[in-house]
Amino acid sequence: MNRKRHNARSVGIDITFSIAIVLLTISAILLVFMTEKDGTASQPDEKETISSIPVETEQIDSNYPGIKIITKTSNDKNAPYAIQYPQSIHTSFNTEVKSYIEEVQARYLETMIEKKRLDGKTSGELNVSYETLPHSSGIYSFVVLTGSSFSESEAGKMEIRSFHLNPETGEDFSIKDLLAGDSNRLQTLASSVRRAIHKDETLQEHLFEDDLEKYTEPRWMNYRNFALTEDALIIYFDENTIADSLVGPPIVSVPVDAIDELLSSAFKPEDMEDAIEIPNQGSMDSSKEEQNGEHPDKSTESDTVSDEQSKDSPPTGTVRKKVALTFDDGPDPKVTRQILETLQMHDAKATFFMLGSRVEYYSDIVNEMKDAGHELGNHTWNHADLTKLSPERIAKEIDKTSAMIEDVTGQKVEAFRPPYGAVNDAVNNMTGLPIVLWDVDTQDWKYRDPARILQVVKENVKDGSIILMHDIHQSTADGLDAVLLYLKSEGYDFVTVKELEETSL
Predict the structure, then answer these.
(1) SS3 assignment, position 347
(2) Residues 381, 355: contact at Cβ < 8 Å?
(3) Rg of the Cα trace of the chain?
């Protein structure tokens, strides 16, 4: 009897012990699983989370034949980005550009993942935009500007890359093609570039003299990023090469007149009538003037005399001349802030016509504009030529931007400027806002020359002028102070477009 009880007790102990072991094993497995999920396995999960954020992609026609604008945006609050790049009908060009864009995007996301792993509070942003610089020979230079930042305390990084295309043949071209592969011509170009650098006052205090020779020596690789326009050969250097990062990637412009003999004949069209028509990226729409039998670039003798009298007349104590400063295509995290500081120094108000895609990611700068008393304007979401879009797309470009500005600032938009000044009946019918153009085009986007901005203003400004500039170019920010000093000396007050219209009523 006792032996039976003992055996029963032993069996019970064994069962209890086995159950305990099973429970401990299950607990251990669960603990390991939860640890991996919350610890070492977090990086792949985080990467998957960031990459799975919905991305909005749009494709629209550009203002240049055969070129489309691709826009990709991500609203991930920790790693947002807004990317624009060109595409054509030519596969090789498209592949080259897309490969670079994907590389930039991958670098940004990998950096964000690593920084977020080390500091969970890290947030950053990536903005990729581009400009098209056409040449009368029919070729295009596409200049892609990449800006990235990863914290408020860490300075953002900027990078410039250029791509080139003959839209008819699909062929690209390099600086070697431009100079007919002649190393002697490259040697001469290098000397011209060095002279241009030493003449550029904005670079002088930031130059790395010890490295200047190295990065400008006559090697094809040193001149791989460039753009050719009718007036200049523009060379783009990487940050912290010939100058420190305070000036961003250094941009050096060499007048075509100084290097004309160096250029291959392929880039000197003999018959200009066979060249492509270059869209006027910075001039006011001329449809109304042309309908009246006038040309916007021509003025009568009496107009010229009147303008000269207006500019030469001294300021009086009773009547002050007024001018509206306008800035397009921003905001930009560096350039716009410098412009805001310069405007504040001169107690000047301006009107900023902003892209909705940039407002979304630089909302703090937009609020700085509002708080400083500047006028906030709509410049569409993606800088599309609205005359080439359907009414539905026109409405989306405009309405989405106005909604974003109002959401960010709590302030309604009261002015609209169409990209390229391009308007037609469909655009007029869809805006619902006053359309603001301009009469003084500084062409700062084209020349990137602070001195030239001042020269254009001096030659064209008059009482009631609206001056067009862009707050995405460092050269514009650098030249603004001189422009404001000149206008003040000529008796001009700085007003917003709205204030200018009110005083003219």
Answers:
(1) coil
(2) yes
(3) 29
Element (H, E) at 129: strand 125-134
Separation between Cα atoms, residue 289 and residue 300, nearest integer Å? 13
CA distance 197 to 212: 9
- At residue 52 the predicted structure's pLDDT band, cuts being 50, 70 and 90, is low
Token pair listed for 50 = 């960031």
Q: What is the Cα–Cα distance from 285 to 425, expressed in whole angstroms?
A: 13
Q: Which fold has domain 287-504?
A: TIM Barrel (3.20.20)
Cα separation, 337 vs 330, in Å, equals: 11
Torsion of CA 205, 330, 253, 128, to 10 degrees: 100
Closest among 502, 504, 497, 486 to 311, alpha carbons compared = 486
Q: Quick check: is 470 catalytic?
A: yes
Phi, psi of 157 (to 5 degrees): -110, 145
For 447-458, how does the pLDDT look when each residue is reduced to its tens digit (9 = 90+)? 778 899 999 999
Please indicate whether residue 231 or residue 151 has the higher confidence score (pLDDT).
Answer: 231
Among 200, 285, 328, 441, the one annotated catalytic? 328
Distance (Å) of CA 366 to CA 54, 62, 88, 325, 359: 25, 26, 33, 17, 7
pLDDT in tens, 203-231: 888 899 889 999 999 999 999 999 998 88
Q: Which of 166, 130, 164, 124 is nearest to 145 (CA)?
A: 130
Interhelix angle for 183-199 vs 209-216, to 10°? 150
Domain ranges of the chain: 48-173, 176-274, 287-504
Peptide bond before residue 331 is cis, with ω within 30 degrees of 0: yes
In the chain, what are the helix, strand and coil shares in percent, each to the nearest 5?
A: 50, 20, 35
Structure tokens of 27? Answer: 């607990």
The number of residues making up the chain comes to 505
Q: How far is CA 478 from the centre of its chain?
A: 17
Amino acid at 496: T
48-173: CATH, from 3.40.50.1110, 3.30.565.40, 3.40.50.1000, 3.40.630.30: 3.30.565.40
Q: Is 379 a catalytic residue?
A: no
Using CA atoms, how far apart are residues 77 and 57, in angstroms rounded to an integer? 18
Contacts of 146 (CB under 8 A, 6+ apart): 104, 126, 127, 128, 158, 159, 160, 161
Report yes or no: 463 and 321 within 8 Å, Cβ to Cβ: yes
- Greatest alpha-carbon pair distance for the chain in Å reads 132
Catalytic position from the list 90, 135, 379, 470 = 470
Answer whether CATH 3.40.33.10 is correct for domain 176-274: no
Structure-token pair, residue 305 = 């005399």
